[in-house]
From TrEMBL, chain A:
PROSITE patterns, A to Z: ABC_TRANSPORTER_1, ABC_TRANSPORTER_2
The entry's keywords: ATP-binding, Cell membrane, Membrane, Nucleotide-binding, Translocase, Transport
GO molecular function: ABC-type phosphonate transporter activity; ATP binding; ATP hydrolysis activity
Protein name in the entry: Phosphonate transport system ATP-binding protein
GO cellular component: membrane
Entry keyword ATP-binding: yes
UniProt-listed Pfam families: ABC_tran (PF00005)
Stretches the record annotates as Disordered: 247-278
ABC transporter domain location: 2-246
Gene3D superfamilies the UniProt entry points to: P-loop containing nucleotide triphosphate hydrolases
Source species: Natronorubrum thiooxidans
TrEMBL record, chain B:
Subcellular localization(s) per the UniProt record: Cell membrane
UniProt cross-references to InterPro entries, sorted A to Z: MetI-like, MetI-like_sf, PhnE/PtxC
Membrane topology: Multi-pass membrane protein
Organism: Natronorubrum thiooxidans
Top-level taxon of origin: Archaea
Name of the protein in question: Phosphonate transport system permease protein
This protein's UniProt keywords: Cell membrane, Membrane, Transmembrane, Transmembrane helix, Transport
Residues passing through the membrane, by range: 30-58, 91-117, 138-164, 219-239, 251-272
Keyword Membrane: yes
Automatic annotation (TrEMBL), chain C:
CDD domains: TM_PBP2
Name of the protein: Phosphonate transport system permease protein
Membrane topology (UniProt): Multi-pass membrane protein
Keyword Metal-binding: no
GO cellular component: plasma membrane
Organism per entry: Natronorubrum thiooxidans
Main subcellular localisation: membrane
Cross-referenced Gene3D superfamilies: MetI-like
Matches recorded under Pfam families: BPD_transp_1
Length: 278, 277, 265
């Protein structure tokens, strides 16, 4: 179970990317985080494994508090958090297998890492996961020989062999064509079910989010303005997320409402066209 | 999981994954590595045998003495004038040699471009380029000094020679990179061979030609600063003389002058190339 | 605008034409001026080629019997290139990290890195060799040090540029899996610069073989010593033999270098 309490991030430039986000993700639910560019979606994801250092607030993974950890403890904690990146972030000049096995680095010695000697069960699992993501037989290809969709699947495999307690995906489909996007989302959904872990997915395309997610988080200007089941995401909710409501109380009210019941949101934000998918 | 050998069809016997290698197989890889390592060992042993620590330390001490005797550099008017005259000769050599070198290179470059030259000519010119690139210009300078006597002419011959290998090779590659579609299009209008060359080939390579020439000139400045060491004219003559007479403070002046001129040449060439391309 | 009456067309605007003309004039004038300054007679154009040709005729036939005598100097030439390159690579790795914007600690270290690179590159091998023969005495050791010092700038510059190209996204991904600092270096950074380091080193070795053939001019070892002696003694058929040997060894090292570099990607 992942819990964030009042998570805040202020960049040195003074930009407040997150204004205090509190939410809980549990079980094997697929949570899609939507919102306009610059709303703080990436910051939120990156704060969870502290690739970006949060300014304030708490992050609890299965009860243990992450923000208080020292550097080496945090490294150990990262083993429990899988991450999938928008630009795949594969080490281009390494083979597929080396990229996947790098997910096990936290568990092997430096010397073993140097000789590429991973425990047989790790290699075993790597082969299994490669099969799951549909890349069996590709283990000795170099990452830069693969297509975008294939690369993203290697990225997912790398995160999955970590045997994480939660998977974070930062815009995993933004660099992909529509067909590969669907394939990747489907794969993530399968993994959530199979590994029985929750997944948080930052996503740009609302239709994709609606199609695959169990729950939606809506972020606007660093503020969580929507948090509820996918079928509660109606036009009004999208309006609040993408346009921001005119008055701040509207937003608060909207949040309050969507949290309590997921029905239509008040009249204030009515009849504005959807700005989704920008 | 059975670890029986010969069970090759089981694709994931975990312990069997090995990092792929660029060599044919692991044995070849290790043979190559060990061979290279042995050669390196031989090199180190043969070069360092007879070189004792004390000699190195003594040498480094000498180095300090050398640097010390170079500073402050000699600045008497007479000597500065000599540096000026020889430096002018150096730069003039670079200009003339670039001109003659590029002139000679042009036909070789066209002949060595795969898309323009018929194959016997192509191989002939490629051969010329390989040979000119293999022999260093100082060697040519030594021979040229014997042939035409001490002085800048020998230097110009050596640097022109040096220009040929470099310029022809790179310019031939530029010619090979031209868009043949444009050439075809011009041909299709009924243009003659010469007209095609003027309208389709030259415009495509002209900026690269200017850029390469300037670049080569910059390298030629470097070369002409040292070519005097073997008597082929330029500031190197002075440098060698000052070393032989143990006038290290004057050598210091010359070295500083060389570095300044080389860097200025590099900056100028970079500026011109930016403007052209 | 008098458009109706027969339009004329020019390739470039007037100003541009003038600029181009001027540039061409200046270039021509410089070359002609240089020619005059050097007091080169035009007759040299006709007299030099026959003189060079005459020399070539005297070189024929090459002294094949002399070949065994130059095997060891040839091998020494390679030794100088090998050890010089290794020494240079070892010294240039830290220099490269200093001279790369994204890894250098501060402006001062950056400037230091650039200074080392520039000094090493702007002084010719033969000048370095002159300095080191004064320091260490004549011989292959001084030549090797000269080759090494000259190569630092080349390797340091190219490797530094490669380090500046490193993608930190890839590094970050390894960090996110929980790898140690050493492992992040091993999996995130080194794979990105290793092919460049190997390629640059082999390429430089190839250049150094060529460079080591001339060290003998200042008494710093290698095949050049033999060559210089033979030229001084006017033994032209020996000179021809040495030239053939140099040609062979340089072309050979070029092939080895090209093949080895093709294998590292």
């Amino acid at each position: 179970m992942l819990e964030t309490i009042d998570l805040r991030k202020v960049y040195p430039t003074g930009d407040e990317a997150l204004t205090g986000v509190s939410t809980t993700v549990d079980g094997n639910e697929i949570v899609a985080m939507i919102g306009p560019s610059g709303a703080g979606k990436s910051t939120f994801i990156r704060c969870i494994n502290r690739l970006t250092e949060p300014t304030d607030g708490e992050i609890r993974l299965d009860g243990s508090e992450l923000t208080a950890l020292g550097e080496s403890e945090m490294k150990a904690a990262r083993r429990n958090i899988g991450m999938v990146f928008q630009e795949y972030n594969l080490v281009e000049r390494l083979t597929v297998m080396e990229n996947v096995l790098s997910g096990r680095l936290g568990y092997v010695s430096n010397w073993a890492a140097l000789r590429r000697k991973f425990p047989p069960e790790d290699v075993e699992r790597a082969y299994d996961v490669l099969e799951t993501v549909g890349l069996d037989g590709m283990e000795n290809k170099r990452a830069d020989e693969l297509s975008g969709g294939q690369r993203q699947r290697v990225g997912i495999a790398r995160a999955v062999v970590q045997e994480p307690k939660i998977l974070l995906a930062d815009e995993p489909t933004s660099s992909l064509d529509p067909e590969s996007s669907h394939a990747v989302m489907e794969l993530l959904a399968d993994i959530a079910a199979e590994e029985d872990i929750p997944i948080i997915i930052n996503i740009h395309e609302v239709p994709l989010a609606v199609e695959y997610a169990d729950r939606i988080l809506g972020l606007h200007d660093g503020e969580l303005v929507f948090d509820g089941p996918t079928d509660g995401l109606d036009e009004n909710a999208k309006d609040v997320i993408y346009r921001g409501a005119d008055a701040s109380e509207t937003t608060n009210e909207a949040v309050a409402k969507t949290r309590t019941d997921n029905n239509a949101i008040s009249e204030q934000a009515a009849d504005k066209p959807t700005a989704a998918g920008d | 999981m059975a670890t029986e050998d010969g069970a090759a069809e089981i694709p994931y016997d975990g312990s069997r994954w090995q990092r792929p290698t660029a060599f044919r197989n692991r044995k070849v890889k290790w043979a190559a590595y060990i061979g290279a390592a042995l050669f390196v060992l031989w090199s180190i042993v043969s070069l360092l045998s007879g070189v004792t620590i004390s000699r190195v330390v003594y040498g480094l001490g000498n180095g300090f003495l050398l640097v010390e005797s170079m500073f402050p550099p000699e600045t008497s008017t007479v000597n500065l004038e000599r540096v000026g005259v020889y430096m002018a000769e150096t730069i003039a050599m670079a200009f003339v040699a670039t001109f003659t070198g590029v002139l000679i290179s042009l036909p070789i470059a066209v002949g060595a471009a795969e898309n323009l030259a018929p194959w016997p000519l192509y191989y002939l010119n490629r051969g010329i380029i390989s040979i000119t690139r293999a022999i260093d210009e100082l060697i040519i300078a030594i021979i040229a000094v014997k042939a035409v006597g001490v002085g800048p002419l020998a230097g110009i011959i050596a640097i022109s020679y040096l220009t040929i290998g470099f310029f022809s090779k790179l310019f031939a590659e530029d010619i090979e990179d031209i868009d043949m579609g444009a050439k075809e299009a011009v041909e299709a209008t009924g243009a003659s061979r010469f007209q095609t060359f003027v309208y389709a080939v030259i415009p495509q390579v002209a900026p690269r030609f200017v850029g390469l020439t300037v670049y080569r000139w910059d390298i030629n400045i470097r070369a002409s600063t040292i070519i005097g060491i073997v008597g082929a004219g330029g500031i190197g003559t002075l440098l060698m003389r000052s070393f032989n007479r143990y006038e290290y403070d004057f050598a210091g002046t010359i070295l500083i002058a060389i570095i300044v001129v080389v860097l200025a040449g590099e900056l100028f060439s970079a500026y011109v190339r930016r403007r052209v391309q | 605008m008098a458009v109706e009456t027969g339009r004329s067309w020019q390739r470039h605007g007037t100003q541009r034409r003038i600029k181009r003309l001027l540039a061409a004039l200046v270039a021509t004038a410089t070359v002609v001026g240089s020619w005059l300054w050097l007091e080169l007679d035009l007759q040299y154009i006709t007299s030099s080629p026959p003189e060079l040709l005459d020399l070539a005729v005297r070189m024929y036939p090459p002294a094949w019997a002399y070949a065994p005598d130059i095997v060891m100097p040839l091998i020494e030439t390679i030794h100088i290139a090998v050890v010089g390159t290794i020494l240079a690579v070892m010294m240039s790795v830290p220099v490269a990290f200093l001279a790369a914007r994204n890894t250098t600690p501060n402006d001062l270290t950056y400037a230091l890195g650039k200074l080392i690179v520039t000094t090493s590159r702007s002084v010719h091998t033969i000048i370095w060799a002159m300095l080191f023969t004064v320091m260490f005495g004549p011989g292959a050791f001084a030549g090797m040090v000269a080759i090494a010092v000259r190569s630092i700038g080349f390797v340091g510059k190219l490797l530094g540029e490669e380090i500046e190209e490193i993608s930190f996204d890839q590094v970050e991904a390894i960090k996110a899996t929980g790898g140690s600092t050493f492992q992040v270096l091993l999996y995130g950074v080194i794979p990105q610069i290793k092919p460049a380091l190997v390629g640059i080193s082999i390429y430089r070795w190839d250049i150094n073989v060529r460079g080591a053939t001339i060290l003998g001019v200042v008494g710093a070892g290698g095949i050049g010593v033999e060559l210089f002696d033979a030229v001084d003694a006017f033994q032209w058929s020996n000179v021809a033999m040495i030239l053939i040997a140099i040609l062979g060894i340089v072309l050979l090292s070029e092939i080895v270098s090209a093949r080895a570099r093709a294998m590292t990607r």
